[in-house]
Amino acid sequence: MITPEDRENKLKEQELRRRELNSSSLPLSELTKHKPPESSFQRFSKKLVKFVKFAGFLVIGIALIRAGFWLGAWIAHLVIVGIIAFIGYKIFLNNDD
Fold it and tell me: pTM of this prediction?
């Protein structure tokens, strides 16, 4: 004896099969264009560009570090002179009367 649920499942399967058979669109793979092999000059130029970028970052980094040390030294000198001046003011010029 066929239940209504079995009949419904059978109809769904038939409809699914019909759709699969009638589908005209096939799944297509994406096409890719092959690049020609690079010449030795192109490889050398890429390496040269990478090296120049690295050298530029290195020079800029060293310059920033040196500028930071120079600026830091001047700030440290100013802070030390300021502290000495404040202590001298407190000792000699401040009246606690």
Answer: 0.47
